[in-house]
Amino acid sequence: MARSSWMAITMAVCLVCGANAVRAQTPPPPPGWVVIPVDEYRELRTRAGQSPPSAAAAEAAFTRLDYTLRVDGDVVVGRASLVIDVLGTGWAAVPLPAGLAVREARLDGQPLVIAAGPPPTVHLSRAGRATLDLDVVFTPTTAAGVDTITLPASTAAVTRVALGVAGTTHVVTAAGGVVVDRTAADDTTTWTVHGRAATPLALSWARRRADPRANEPLRLRARLDAVAGLRDTLLQVVTTVDVEVLQGATRDVTLAVPTGVTVTGVTGPLVDDWRLDGAWLRVTLLEPVSSTTTCVVRSESRLASSPDVVVPMLRVPAADRESGRISVDVGGEAEVVASNATGLEGLDAGAGAISPRARAFQFTALAGTAERRLALTIARYVPEAVPVATVDEARYRVLASADGSRLVEAQYLVRNNQRSGLTVTLPPGARLWQAMLGDRRLRPGVVDGARVLVPLDAAPAGTAPAAVVVSLVYLDRAGAWVDDASVRLVLPAIDLPVARTGLLLHHPPSVRLDIETAGAFRVTDDLGPFAQPMSAPRPAVRPAAVDDTRSGAPADVVTLVARLRREQTRRPAASRDGEFAFPGIGPAVFLRSELTAEAEPPALTVVLRSSR
Length: 612
Hints:
mainly beta; 42 strands; Immunoglobulin-like; 612 residues; eight-stranded mixed beta sheet; 3 domains
């Protein structure tokens, strides 16, 4: 028993001494280090992945996303630079494009922790613009010798990708974007691609395969469709050039440019660059073409102001056959009176023309080196103002009662060649009863209870303006007609100038009118309408009397006319069937005025005197 106790004590002393020896051999941590328990380290890692404390949330948006990538063996590596705008103060949670394999993130050059998500998110706490740089890596998929990577969709307004591929014999295509540029330097070709917003961008590249047709002699056909516009001495031409390769392949298209022509731009889906060298325009393509391609050439030139004009045309000298057409518009102040064409055939008026004034010509199928020439003789005119619509004459008939009620008929002779309607503004408080356009009854539109919209008939192009009579009948009310009172009569305003205005005013027999203050109106004899359409004879058809309930007149109109007729013996005049027979009751005076301005209501003020 004593021996066992002694051995246990000996082993415990050895273990303690051994532990002290090991502890003495462990060096202390270097300066700047903090040693914490494993549990506390795990808790800090957990907290680092959590969202920041909830404060006032701020809005943020991607402004731009730029990828700079290069193919490095079996992977594609590079950097994605995100421009982020934070609006307001507080924390802003910005989700990153899903699917990015990010190796490292830096915000304005400083390391940044990305929340795992999903989706991966960065948190920004300061307002303004910030740049987030991500080191990314993609693993391309390979199928049939074509490598493809897919960039995830993002909400950035602008997405731009620069993809570098070793060598100069590759072809890059983009699905969800467009290839806009290609540059080569140090045996590396860099392709610039612009992507669409909220759409994944798939980039594919493959080594260009040798085309056996490239060694064959080049043969091609060309079609040129040109549209030319001549204004004064400036001729602008837009030419669409369609090239069809029949044999071989080509990396450029060469066009012959006439002397004095300046090329202002060349566009097309495969156009890489263009250069004008003297009389030759060379358009370089992004890749060799062995089928078809299209480009649009814009050009302009200064021509002499003489009547004889030679229209310059672009040519494709290498074409075995050249076809197409050209349309020339000389504008509304000139007219083509003669043409002299070589290698062209004139088309019928309007066929293939850009406007009714243009002349169109079709190319005769000839070689690109054959002679083509187009000379035009132009007659120029001095521009003059052409009225769109006018009112030759306006005539009013007014039936006034002593209590201030007035029944008014307004007739307008409108000559129109373009306008679709006439706007008539009735006096305040007036109520429309009837509207007619010629012999047709209308239900015109009424705006705000005062503006009446009457549709008009327009004359066909190239004919004289159509003449039509617009008739309106309405009921109005103003101050009572008593002795020594001043009465102001306001007539409708129309949105056209009026050449002549006639007014026949029937007033109560108990008063006489002092017309010295009649304004623009003057008292004259009624010689009848000046314009022929308003003075045309009418069939003698007697409609129902206005004060007859079968006439369909409003109750207040029937009451007004019946009251006035009881004081007179005169009957209503005959009129056309279906047209209101305006009653001529009581004494009348005729007044006339000239040149009423547009939208100006004719008005006159009269002083009433006793007739006793």
